[in-house]
Amino acid sequence: MNVHDRSGLVADPLSPHDIERLDRSTNLAEGLPGWAYYDPSFYEAERKHVFAAGWVGVGFRQRYPQP
Fold first, then answer.
1. Which pLDDT does position 21 carry in this prediction?
2. Is there a contact between 48 and 19 (Cβ–Cβ < 8 Å)?
């Protein structure tokens, strides 16, 4: 999956300026704009184009207590 391929999106939720700020080297990159954390359309695009593509690792099992 190419993370830069946004061809499947109905509307481009991030401006070219936002993408440029995200695509910098690690020591210069900035995070998502604040609205991306609560906007329903961004959530749907992220859910469909990022998380639906496969498993997403969030940590190591050893770091969490057993139920």
1. 92
2. no
